[in-house]
């Protein structure tokens, strides 16, 4: 029997999360990221809660009837955006990744439910947001199943 436990990420998770981000960028957008840059970025986020907050889903299972082992199954990152319209913070769900062997087993649902409960319990948080690629129908179905709606925005960017 196995169960999922969500925990805050720690500095020792940096390399695993960075590896997952590199894999996610390739799987979803066919973008090759520079691993040292991603490691530095994840490290900076882990070190500074004003930048980001990471969570790791751990799959716990009993071995030989008494010993429990836990293996990392997925992650997500939260960032904050101030809304003057609502006088509060939106929490942005970003950098979602579930390891291939743990997909379709409730890992994202557990991560999402965890951060949604934290958001409801945190004064000043007005809701959760995320962005998803237009062509990623599977992710869109997952997010709708979690009670999220298309907010009607497109995202534009300009690099420096």
Automatic annotation (TrEMBL):
Pfam family, one: Acetyltransf_1
Transmembrane segments: none
Signal peptide interval: none
Ranges of residues in domain N-acetyltransferase: 4-160
Name of the featured protein: GNAT family N-acetyltransferase
Species in which this protein is naturally found: Lysobacter firmicutimachus
Organismal lineage: Bacteria, Pseudomonadati, Pseudomonadota, Gammaproteobacteria, Lysobacterales
């Amino acid at each position: 029997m196995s169960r999922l436990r969500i925990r805050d990420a720690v500095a020792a998770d940096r390399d695993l999360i960075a590896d997952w981000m590199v894999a996610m960028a390739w799987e979803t957008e066919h973008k090759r990221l520079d691993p040292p840059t991603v490691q530095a970025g994840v490290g900076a986020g882990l070190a500074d809660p004003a930048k980001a907050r990471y969570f790791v889903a751990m799959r716990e299972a009993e071995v030989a009837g008494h010993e429990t082992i836990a293996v990392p199954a997925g992650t997500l990152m939260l960032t904050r955006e101030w809304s003057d319209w609502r006088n509060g913070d939106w929490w942005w769900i970003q950098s979602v990744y579930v390891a291939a062997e743990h997909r379709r087993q409730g890992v994202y649902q557990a991560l999402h439910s965890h951060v949604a409960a934290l958001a409801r319990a945190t004064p000043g948080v007005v809701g959760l947001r995320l962005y998803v690629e237009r062509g990623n129908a599977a992710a869109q179905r997952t997010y709708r199943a979690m009670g999220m709606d298309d907010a009607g925005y497109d995202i534009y960017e300009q690099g420096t």
